[in-house]
Design brief:
This protein has eleven helices and three strands; from the N terminus they run βββααααααααααα. It is mainly α. Strands 1-2-3 form a three-stranded antiparallel β-sheet.
């Protein structure tokens, strides 16, 4: 939190910048360089994690995903062949863990297609009600959109190529449908690893500073259920094609209103107005790693 106080009774305005208990005095004619302020901000992040309501909720959901992953991993290691049979078994013939997974996945995806104020600002930024216009250069916005679209296209090509390997192995009979479902559940866990701890797409491709500013935030379901395309069953294909609908819904919103997705044109996405702070763990890890490599 940065607080600037101007003394009303002196001829020379004095500013007091307080940052996590440390004060920095500035006088008229003196300015704090942006790099210096960034350094102080990074130090503030590494000192402690402020557990916002949204961060606590994300950590809870992360714990749930870990539990789901471990439960399915145990079932996969002890009953791999039966999992394949469950993927083609109608619910009328018996309710299984695979059916429970399908319901869980569908509910999560459908919540991204209907108005839902409980979701993160990373998703809600596409809504008109969350848009707070900021003065910006239309040319700068166009360049930003172009750069982000190129990075998104590269990610899509990389992801499809990566998953095509598993699809071909499944079609050749080397992998079972149970193996692809295990991969999907692993992606289900990785989705929140990317949000809370480390995201390779953010780090190496998109270069966005947080999930709230992420161009491909709602691609998660499509990426999660890509392996399901290669399994010809109602449950697998319903997951994949529903995720495709979520992806198209997001892309249409982005194409129609790109100004809502950039912090330079939407004040809601700027750090000063962010209330969620779900990036704190990720930033702390990144800063700690940077310090170690610097040594």
């Amino acid at each position: 939190c940065i607080i600037i106080i101007f003394h009303p009774y002196t001829s020379s305005t004095t500013g007091l910048i307080s940052l996590n208990g440390q004060d920095l005095l500035t006088n008229r004619g003196q300015t704090v360089k942006r790099e210096k302020l960034k350094e102080y901000t990074e130090k503030a992040v590494t000192r402690g994690i402020r557990k916002t309501r949204e961060l606590k909720f994300y950590l809870f959901k992360f714990a749930v995903r870990i539990a789901v992953f471990l439960a399915f991993l145990f079932l996969y290691l002890t009953n791999r062949e039966n999992i394949t049979a469950m993927m083609f078994q109608p619910i009328t013939e018996g309710f299984t863990f695979v059916h429970a997974l399908w319901i869980l996945f569908m509910v999560i995806m459908l919540s991204h297609l209907i108005p839902n104020n409980r979701l993160s600002m990373a998703w809600k930024k596409a809504k008109e009600s969350e848009y707070r216009p900021a003065d910006h250069d239309p040319l700068a916005l166009a360049k930003y959109v172009q750069k982000q679209n190129v990075a998104a296209l590269i990610i899509m090509l990389v992801w499809l190529s990566f998953n095509a390997i598993f699809g071909i192995l499944c079609l050749l009979g080397i992998l079972l449908p149970a193996d692809l479902l295990m991969l999907t559940v692993f992606f289900f866990l990785c989705d929140y690893i990317c949000i809370l701890l480390f995201c390779p797409f953010q780090t190496f491709f998109m270069k966005n500073k947080c999930c709230i500013n992420c161009r491909i935030y709602d691609w998660g379901h499509f990426m999660m259920f890509t392996p399901m395309l290669f399994i010809p069953s109602f449950y697998s294909w319903s997951l994949f094609f529903t995720s495709l609908v979520v992806l198209l819904h997001w892309e249409i919103s982005y194409a129609r209103h790109p100004e809502r997705f950039w912090e330079g044109s939407n004040k809601t996405l700027q750090c000063a107005t962010c209330k969620e702070r779900t990036c704190q763990l990720k930033n702390s890890i990144r800063n700690s790693a940077a310090k170690r490599f610097a040594k």
